[in-house]
Amino acid sequence: MEPQVINTFPLPAQTSDQKANYVQFKVERSDSVDVPGCTAIESLLLNGVEIPAFIDEKVPTDLTLRNFQPVRIPLYEIQDGPNGPMLVRSSKSNDGRWQVGSIVSIKGTFETPVTAKK
Amino acid sequence: MNFQLNRASFGESLLEESGFNPAQLPISRAVHSINTMPNAIQEKMLRIERGDYGGLDPATAMMNLQMEVIQNVQRAQLSSGVPIREDLEAEVKLIIPLDTPFRNMLPRTVGSSTVSSWYQQTTLGGGYGIATTVTSGASSATQTVGSTAGMVPGMSVYFAVTNAFRIVSSVTNSTTVVFTATISTTTAEAVSAGPYFQPGQADVQAFFAESGAPATVSPTYVKKSATYKLLGTMYSITGLAMAAGATFENQLFLEKQAAIRRLMLMEENALINSTSTNVLPPYGDGTTAYGFDGLIALCTTANGVPVPQVQTSVGALTTAHVDAQLTRQNNQGAINPWIMVNAQEANSFVHLAEASGTVIRVMAGPNNEAALGLKIMEYIHPVTGYKVPIRTSRFMPAGTIVFGADQLPDGHQAMDVRVLPQVQLPQLAPTESIQGYVAQEIAPAITAPQVYPGIVSVYEVLRMKNAKVFAKSSGLTAV
Fold first, then answer.
1. A 6-45 near B (Cβ less than 8 A)
2. Domain boundaries, given as residue ranges, for chain A
3. Tens digit of each residue's pLDDT (9 = 90 or more) over B9-21
4. Residue B148 contacts by C-beta under 8 Å, 6 or more apart in sequence?
5. pTM of the model
6. How many angstroms separate the CA atoms of B335 and B322, rounded?
7. Residue B406, SS3?
8. Which chain A residues are closer than 8 Å to B120 by Cβ?
9. In Å, how far is A3's CA from the nearest CA of chain B?
10. Is B323 an interface residue toward A (CB < 8 Å)?
């Protein structure tokens, strides 16, 4: 009987964000991430895990818990910062704090070619 | 004959729910098994086998024995004449699985009827704080609200839909307030004091004059109800296995015990992950949903968990995040909080503690032997300083943490499992925690007459008594 080969990937597989031409940024402070030239985000990964652009929730509008209002809450957005476009995070997602040292990967539209900070 | 079937009725009940009293259900047990006979009868039979008739003549002794057996059989029969359910209360109480931490920590209370009804607390009544709504949504530091009662400069005001708070700069009049910064609000969204504040019902008069009276306030509850759900597992044993096992191991017993343990694990999974809308197994048959809402499904804003307490796409676990969630819980009055995690997050806690820069070191013994590694059992609450237990269940989804509490601000249990008994309970059972497991043997099929199947089942529903003391974080990644 032929021995079964169970490990055909001796090296770590390429992560999805590396394959898909994402631009990567290292988080240096928790309140925002500078994303030079970024004008629109198609997809955003935090340490390789996608953060959806928004979530849909139902929130009660009074104490009876019978009346609700659907709310679409964006989880991140690009804002104008002192150094150009910066990425801010919703308070619904880790209280709006970016984990310092983590990698944010963005697939989107950039005005000018950027060099990813590592 | 003294046997009387106590039928289900809509008469008076000592229990809080309407319907029949489960403590008065007819006894049912498997009469065909000698093991289920009372000890007194078994002892008498053994004595008779030895020729000891207890001082009576053999005919009288046999007659007495027969009477006792018949009485026992009568007690075991339902109106259909077939004993159907074997009470597993004692067996299940003796089996304490270590891998069902969530199931183990929940009180199991006695229910009745087909639906469990309870009140979900939303506030204790207040007499402080703010309770109003935005009259007309606007992006401005000046906002129009239903009432500015309770607002004073310097206090923080929380907007439920916008999920943000602002500090009051000044109160212009009874409906207009100015904040220290602009906020974009939505029409009709709820406004309360916060976020570091236990929400009250309303800002009403509490101090009063010698000849006056304080204002009346009352706790606010939401009436909730849920039908009991049937949870079970099938087992079977062949006649050959039973016969072969009779000489060395009781195979029927083993099979039944395995079914009990299996059901406990299924129950742990359901109590955490079940939803009342999922039609797929194990929660449904592919067409119809049969499950109840479990812990994760109940930890939603639609069930009353405050918006900031449901965190999504959190990313890498940090102590700052855990602190924030525990603080919010504390603001809502949670008593004896706990943290429920998956093994991934249990490891993340360890790695946070062992990360470079922490003060934890490996201690070597006199012979230079040392144990490397940690198990994080508790988390020091950032506000109260109490130790918050970290409970790891392998049924928790990786990447999700639930922050719960044992008790509500008023001391009531925050959550319980309401169990609908299937058999008669001991006299004091309505005040005790019950398991509610029963086994029911099923007639063999004509195509397989030597296969003896059975079912172990429990009827129950998970009840959350106050969603505000719960919090949920999802989308966590391993550290």
1. none
2. 16-110
3. 333 333 344 444 4
4. B132, B171, B172, B173, B174, B175, B176, B177
5. 0.75
6. 17
7. strand
8. 65
9. 33
10. no
